[in-house]
Amino acid sequence: MANIDEKMIEKLVEQAMQISRNAYCPYSKFPVGAAVLTERGDIFTGCNVENASLGLTVCAERNAVFHMIAEGQQQIVVVVVYTPTPTPSAPCGACRQVINEFGPAAQIICVCDGPDRLQVSLAELLPNSFDRSSLE
Prior knowledge:
The protein is of the alpha+beta class. The protein has a single domain (6-127), classed as Cytidine Deaminase, domain 2 (3-Layer(aba) Sandwich). The chain is built from four helices and five strands; from the N terminus they run αββαβαββα. It has a five-stranded mixed beta sheet. It is globular, with a radius of gyration of 14 Å.
């Protein structure tokens, strides 16, 4: 994993947990929070926002990445995802692909209400990814 100290990881975990409280999830009742650390050291957060037309739902991870882009940054170092579950949940395929666009070397840390933690590289979650070079 990139050389990110435990204090920063805990700050990201705290922010992901806190932002999950703002999730709009009346259908799934599954509030998720995400915190993205950029190469500049800034943190952007996001929560899931559901819609009655479920296909229009936006996951917490993509919400945080889009927030990062809206603020003019494009390099992800770490993504922390919090789910209110007994074991960690990894990002969905769509989120993995979006993270790959801006952080192909990103570290993904998934935390939950239980003691377990999933800590992997994006490449482990999305091997043989489709990226810019795939379009050349």
